[in-house]
User: What shape does this take?
Amino acid sequence: MITIADIEAAAARIAGVAHRTPVARCRTLDALAGGRELHFKCEQLQRVGAFKFRGAFNALRSLPREALAAGVVTHSSGNHAQALALAAQLCGATARVVMPRDAKEVKKQAVRGYGAEVTLCEPTLDARQRAADAILAEHGGRFVPPYDDVAIISGQGTVALELLEQAPALDAIIAPVGGGGLLSGVCLAARARAPHVRLFAAEPRGADDCARSMARGELVPQTAPDTIADGLLTSLGELCWPVIRDHVERVITVSDEAIIAAMRLCWTRAKLLIEPSAASAVAAALSEEFRALSGIERVGVVLSGGNVDIDALPW
Amino acid sequence: MITIADIEAAAARIAGVAHRTPVARCRTLDALAGGRELHFKCEQLQRVGAFKFRGAFNALRSLPREALAAGVVTHSSGNHAQALALAAQLCGATARVVMPRDAKEVKKQAVRGYGAEVTLCEPTLDARQRAADAILAEHGGRFVPPYDDVAIISGQGTVALELLEQAPALDAIIAPVGGGGLLSGVCLAARARAPHVRLFAAEPRGADDCARSMARGELVPQTAPDTIADGLLTSLGELCWPVIRDHVERVITVSDEAIIAAMRLCWTRAKLLIEPSAASAVAAALSEEFRALSGIERVGVVLSGGNVDIDALPW
Assistant: This one.
């Protein structure tokens, strides 16, 4: 059971190291959202370009010194790998990161650039876990999961603590959902600090395990996800799911087409350089489904990250 | 003679309409700047995507009601056109904007989108001025110049008022220079509020009339400018020049290659979607010439705008 005290403790641990990211506005997007005020929490401006740094740094700062000295291990193809690598560097710990062989070269370089040891493996979840297990058996150290973890969820919840201070009087918050670390952290922080704020998830139609889980009332694992939002391919975590089930009013699923259109709007009109996963939250805010809801004027939209290959844009 | 009182009055006029844009940080760029702290004032997040809105809105808000009713006129191929169009729309005034025939279609559409009447002309400064004169003769109205104007300079100066509040204890500020409206406004605000802050201009090597003017001690007009920084092609204004001459410590000229490299770094590492003109200030901050100066730890870098064609990027 994660409490607001955990999230507040995370906020204290990451203060001065993680950025307090700004909240941006764009009237053009407000108009497209049906005349509502959209308040964009800019986690693409967070260190490593994504909210993931909050959780990773909180997790490492929460470890006792001896555990840190033994090093940390994870597997990730994306932002968590960079976040853990930087967090470990800042804490003076060794990070060993398993990445799929087909991960983008620029991501492997970024992880190595933060001083982590990268081990490549076949691009399956099974191979990733086996490679991580082998590293743990050989070197010891602590496995730091990407989302299904108390310290990680508490760290991600600090996004909402800040957003509620920076944009007071919000009626609703929309956050993207992949594994659910960000969304469940946001739910817990918002419920404690602003219980009236309505909470929404944005999910790609091609990776809609959260929407299916909510419809069925039980955790439905992701199978064969297919979406441009490469940060949202994972299955909902077991710790994250009950939080989301109990606090999220609605999961808004969006097509890849809508995600790309929202991303393009953010780039061209709002000058917010976001990745497709973040654009899914914008697409949800602009959707007919969300616009049809009454009683919502001021909306916090969590832009989760901006790690995108600018040499291979989807337009 | 423009005073801090003019800039403060401008700040009051634009408050609540112009965005108070955030200040962003990026450790990777700090490291590349020689370990200094760079504080990026994000005018790409300003309305119309550039600082130009501040001056245009201040100019229109400064006009008596009868003058506004007669409409406003300008010629511009770029951000000033959009800024004036939006400012006029917000003030309930008619805007007539002369644009060169070869201006990008997306820019013409943006200006029309804000409700302005667009007149196309041949792409020479002379043709632009003649077309604007013809409109003034036919319809009347007030000509609002892009930079060489007290209300415009005062409006742009509000950038520095905010920056100095948001990032206290700066040792230096770098702003790009084209016509000089932004730079001279920044100079006047900074001199009044924080006289110890050292002031620098960033200028493309292919449009270095400011550097040449400083070297010669007198205003040297721009001839045949050639740079990717399309916002900095203009000649220094006559009102702007003496302010710059008296307050700018050094003009740092940067190559288009350095501008593109800085722009790419801002996009990929800092997630700041800026246009080449803004990137010239970043390139200056990263230059050997600027890094060689001693006594500078904390630098404000004015990112002037983010209006770039994302379908025709320079890489």
Notes: Residues 4-50+149-303 of chain B form a domain with the Rossmann fold fold (CATH 3.40.50.1100). Residues 28 and 143 of chain B are 44 Å apart (CA to CA).
